[in-house]
Amino acid sequence: MKTGNQMALLAGTICSLALFLSFQGPRAFSSSEVCCSTVSTDTREGRLAVFDSVWETIEDRYYDPTFRGIDWKAPGIAYRQAAADAKGGHELYQVLRRMLAALDDPHTRVYPPEQKFDWWKPRFVSAGLVVRQIEGVPTVVQVDPKSDPAGAGIRAGDQIESVDGVPAWEAVQKKLGSQELANASKAARFHAVATLLEGEAGGPVRIKWKRKDGQIKAGTFPRYWAQRELGFQISRKHNFLVIEIEGFTQGLVIELLRTLREKLRGARGVVLDLRRNGGGDADAMAEMAELFLGEGIDLGDFTDRAGTTLPLITHAKSAFHYAPNTKEWLPLVVLVSERTSSAAEILAAALQIQHRARVIGTPTCGCVLAIRSRYTLPDDGVLDVSEFDYRTAGGIRLEGRGVQPDAVILPQRRDLYAKQDRMLDVALDILNTSRRTF
Q: With CB atoms counted within 10 Å of each terminal CB, which end of the chain scores lower, N or C?
């Protein structure tokens, strides 16, 4: 029988964005352990020290020794020269990101010291808008009601026509760099659209957008730092329980499970909404999986470049012992989207493979590589490197593929304007006509 390993899967705000593994055994190297002092990227020597640390760590640690089919060594020479010639840390990190973009891997990323990423309290630069591709067009899907764009009349459903004078799809192509738009991976394309309005905090962004009535409007808005905490919501719709959880942390899941103790009573079925879930702690995710699947269920394996395998299974003992076991008696529908990633993809795939739930929505991110450790760079920046691949219990590799829903429900602009959640409506219809578990 497989033995479990303690793991933590870290979530991001956009697409996965990282999956972190920790376990008993050989400890990963971190450059912070050998660097006697922090270097300055204002000097050529400091920039080269940071570049070399990034390049060599990926060379030594990346899960795929073929580097996803690209030539990793040759371009490093040109990028190293560009790093040496960069004017300060900002340009250096632009060079590093261009180099990493060739891997087409949303998990392997660098963060300068001032932008260190806290997975549990994501901090990011925003213009007050969330943009996604809807019906083939970059579209506003969420507006901060207190933001300048909201005051200017931008609404969810409006199309982005241009950013800083550049047509929207041309701006997306620039985000993709050397990757052709038509050939870009799902995750890369999603990330490029999602970050369309990104830039320096405090700097302006000029947006031209098309309203519902076809009118073209334009405005210039400030970018600013924003932060949010992962959370969950539980609601009841016609005696069905709707559970939305944005990530998996031990504290968050424990609180959720305690709340469910009372909420599950009398429920005829459950909708588990993972559409905005970017991952989280694997032990916490396994606790959720145990609730619906039972004890000791195989959730798949992680494998590093040396062939070391780390299994993931549901717990032998659940912290949810005080609530009804949902395995046999509650119909379950899972909602997913391109924002569903990491641990959330593992959970959705397991529920689907075990025929425990109907999965509906759009294909998930396909972002299920894993990080063993975060590496501190010589300037106190951070590097995340994908050190493990993942396959489901059925041997399916989710990276680049994602979870394919049993029923595809595509979002539409008219639903955004009407503030209608068509995917949730379909899920409730499925539960309403169901007399058995799936």
A: N
